Amino acid sequence: MIQMANITKAFGKHEVLKGINLTVKKGEVVCILGPSGSGKTTLLRCINYLEKPNQGEVSIGDFTINCKRPSKQDIHTLRKKTAMVFQHYNLFKHKTVLENVMEGLVIVQKQSKDIARQTSIQMLEKVGLGSKLDAYPSQLSGGQQQRVGIARALALNPEVILFDEPTSALDPELVGEVLEVIQKIAKEGITMIVVTHEMGFAREVSNHVVFMDQGVIVEEGRPQDIFSDAKEERTRQFLKRIT
Ligand code: ADP
């Protein structure tokens, strides 16, 4: 479903991704774990070209983009297959909750307002915000704002949703409601890649865990194997520190 082949990325002289190979199957929930600065967010952003890799290939379904010479159309095609949930929600402050979710459907996908409204309301109901359609982001808690971000991603009906530390900006008491929503949509079989520090979530919800350090994938496997029987010392040390 998603394949990254030999992806490298440097910022100036700093090589942040050093030849990443990653395969994600359809319907899988993959959690990417690792210390701060190990390249997790950069890897996620390379999947939809928010960061341009220096080298390598990204495939989603039967569409492959070669990172050396992608056309604008290639990048557009790739982006349409993905949706992203950001750490800081990235909502439009001057638009209502409903307008935030409708925006991508009307502007990017060129849907009619009526259809876009219907889909958006359904998705907002799914994340428990059916009563907040006309609220503005500033009137919502961080957890609610992030659930709007998730509804917006779902509404796009992407082939994969990319979550970039979706709970790390939240007060601790709001983390649970957001993780519950992610868990609920995971059960629907949507392919998801989640950069997270929430080990409980990774253990319980993901099908596959990837541990990164210093720009490489050190180890990957089923959560039950990684959490109880990691093969690599670096993984064991990290998990010991964080759990
Ligand atoms: P993680 O998500 O694992 O914390 P990141 O992918 O955010 O790691 O960052 C990996 C490294 O790349 C860090 O050293 C970070 O400072 C650097 N980096 C990330 N984005 C940029 C950028 N736009 N310009 C320069 N350096 C960056």
UniProtKB/TrEMBL annotation:
<dbReference type="InterPro" id="IPR030679">
    <property type="entry name" value="ABC_ATPase_HisP-typ"/>
</dbReference>
<dbReference type="InterPro" id="IPR017871">
    <property type="entry name" value="ABC_transporter-like_CS"/>
</dbReference>
<keyword id="KW-0472">Membrane</keyword>
<keyword id="KW-0813">Transport</keyword>
<protein>
    <submittedName>
        <fullName>Amino acid ABC transporter ATP-binding protein</fullName>
    </submittedName>
</protein>
<dbReference type="GO" id="GO:0005524">
    <property type="term" value="F:ATP binding"/>
</dbReference>
<keyword id="KW-0067">ATP-binding</keyword>
<keyword id="KW-1003">Cell membrane</keyword>
<feature type="domain" description="ABC transporter">
    <location>
        <begin position="2"/>
        <end position="239"/>
    </location>
</feature>
<dbReference type="InterPro" id="IPR003439">
    <property type="entry name" value="ABC_transporter-like_ATP-bd"/>
</dbReference>
<dbReference type="InterPro" id="IPR003593">
    <property type="entry name" value="AAA+_ATPase"/>
</dbReference>
<keyword id="KW-0547">Nucleotide-binding</keyword>
<dbReference type="InterPro" id="IPR050086">
    <property type="entry name" value="MetN_ABC_transporter-like"/>
</dbReference>
<dbReference type="InterPro" id="IPR027417">
    <property type="entry name" value="P-loop_NTPase"/>
</dbReference>
<dbReference type="Pfam" id="PF00005">
    <property type="entry name" value="ABC_tran"/>
</dbReference>
